[in-house]
Amino acid sequence: MKRALALITSKRGQQTVEFVMMLGLIVSVILAATISFHKEIAGGFFTIIGGILG
Q1: What is d(CA 9, CA 2) in angstroms, rounded to the nearest whole number?
Q2: What pTM was estimated for this model as a whole?
Q3: What are the tens digits of pLDDT across the range 1-54?
Q4: Residues 16-21: contacts with CB within 8 Å, 24+ apart?
Q5: Separation CA 22–CA 28 (nearest Å)
Q6: Cα dihedral across residues 51, 52, 53, 54: positive or negative
Q7: Angle 11-36/38-53 helices, nearest 10 degrees?
Q8: DSSP secondary structure string, the chain?
């Protein structure tokens, strides 16, 4: 427990926590956009595939 607390309070631990928080924020935004626009994304995907396959 002391070792984990020391890692979090150190400079390296702070950078790790900040990185994980930013990664979580990015994933949350991508997930929210995908859920909100899934029909448009699927339609665009199939339009591109239809254009490629002719």
Answers
A1: 11
A2: 0.60
A3: 777 777 667 777 788 889 999 999 999 999 999 999 999 989 999 999 999 998
A4: none
A5: 10
A6: positive
A7: 70
A8: -HHHHHHHHSHHHHHHHHHHHHHHHHHHHHHHHHHHTHHHHHHHHHHHHHHHH-
The residue type of 40 is E
- Using alpha carbons, select from 40, 20, 38 the residue that is nearest to residue 30: 38
Both tokens assigned to 40 = 């448009």
d(CA 50, CA 24): 34
For residue 41, the one-letter residue type is I
Task: Confirm if 41 and 34 have CB atoms less than 8 A apart.
Answer: yes
The CA-CA-CA angle for residues 19, 32, 41, to 5°, reads: 120
